[in-house]
Write a structure and sequence with these properties.
elongated, two-stranded antiparallel ribbon, ATP11 protein-domain-containing protein, alpha+beta, mitochondrion, about 20% strand, six-stranded antiparallel beta sheet, ATP11
Length: about 375
């Protein structure tokens, strides 16, 4: 006898099951009666509710000078009847719709007195209704929130008045930016020349992940993981700093302890007015404004999260290491400085490629030289 395939076996079992169910249905005798549950629920006397709130009703009756609960009910009977009439007027169209199976939108009941003042409107043709709907004024669209970027980064225009900031010289802009962040003890800020930042950004796009050490006296060093992200909408680049130990455990769900954002709105050169003192002779000096070409800058701001085990000084050290390892200020220190900058760049590339030549010992050695 040939073996049955699974589909054939399933069909056979389902057919037998239907036969068994049909036989059992005809043999079953049903003695249950069907009742309207809504009728039973609404017509029974709610004695348990009255008993539950009897004490509060007695207190209210005595407070209003009534002898008992029945006297209180009699005093409120007119008000209860009025509320029931209002409720019936509102729910009547709904009850009619349920009874007649109406699927059209329901018209709300007219307000008192409106029927006598306004004539009954005739149904309008379909094309007129369409025209009326299209010409109905719509509410204005609310303006976008200043932090409407999907990444949650606040644009620079929500921090500074850009039209007023653009004509300012870099020295004035730097003082203004530092003063803006001086009121918060856990904030970070910096003004970076555009040429310096462009070097950093070029390396960051090639190697967006790296590790940086924070030395602790008598405790060794703690390694932190940094990650670059870019937001086109706000013209910004953000760096997230997280303890490496936490990142190993929680991965992308690890919570950063420090976040710094670089704003590129002022990266291009701009014409500004600078004041110069001109010697007119005979001890007379005149101050006059001269329009000059100012180098572009990148404004950086950051915040250290409280109770994350990182001090503001540690975060400042991490930001400084970030700039140095990503090529910022490579020209400092003469020939020796250029050689150390090349060594830092090799460590960055080795880490990004997973090269075995990268080691934490070499990373700490370069960090000690910067300190």
């Amino acid at each position: 006898m040939a073996a049955l395939r699974p589909p054939a076996l399933q069909h056979l079992l389902s057919h037998q099951t239907r036969v068994l169910r049909t036989t059992a249905w005809h043999q079953q005798r049903r003695w249950a009666q069907v009742h309207d549950a809504r009728f039973l629920a609404t017509t029974q006397q709610p004695r348990h509710i009255l008993e539950k709130y009897r004490q509060k009703l007695d207190e209210k009756a005595r407070a209003e000078g009534h002898a008992d609960i029945d006297s209180l009910k009699a005093a409120y009977s007119d008000k209860i009847k009025a509320l029931r009439k209002e409720t019936d007027a509102v729910t009547a169209p709904l009850d009619q719709a349920r009874a007649g199976g109406v699927k059209e939108p329901l018209t709300p009941p007219p307000s008192p007195g409106s029927s006598s003042q306004q004539p009954q409107q005739q149904p309008q043709p379909q094309h007129q209704a369409t025209t009326t709907t299209s010409t109905t004024p719509q509410p204005p669209t609310p303006p976008k929130s200043p932090s409407s970027s999907p990444t949650g980064v606040k644009p620079l225009s929500a921090i500074l008045n850009l039209p007023k900031v653009l004509p300012l010289p870099n020295t004035t802009l730097t003082n203004l930016w530092r003063q803006h962040h001086s009121t918060h003890p856990r904030s970070l800020c910096a003004v970076i020349p555009a040429s310096t930042y462009q070097t950093m950004d070029s390396l960051a796009r090639q190697h967006p992940h790296f590790v940086l050490p924070v030395p602790h006296p008598q405790q060794g060093a703690e390694i932190h993981f940094c990650q670059w992200t870019w937001d086109v909408e706000t013209r910004s680049a953000t760096v997230l700093f997280t303890q490496l130990a936490e990142y190993k455990v929680r991965g992308e769900f690890a919570v950063p302890h420090t976040t710094v954002t670089h704003y590129l709105d002022l990266v291009g050169g701009r014409r500004v007015v600078k004041d110069f003192v001109k010697d007119e002779g005979e001890g007379q000096q005149v101050q006059e404004g001269v329009e000059v070409e100012e180098e572009g800058v990148v404004l950086m701001q950051g915040m250290v999260v409280e109770d994350r085990g990182v001090k503001v000084e540690d975060a400042q050290w991490l930001v400084m290491c970030l700039q140095r390892f990503y090529g910022g200020w490579d020209g400092l220190g003469g020939q020796g400085g250029l050689e150390r900058a090349e060594e830092r760049r090799r460590l960055l590339e080795w880490f990004g490629k997973g090269d075995e030549r990268f080691s934490v010992e070499k990373l700490l050695e370069q960090a000690e030289r910067m300190g």
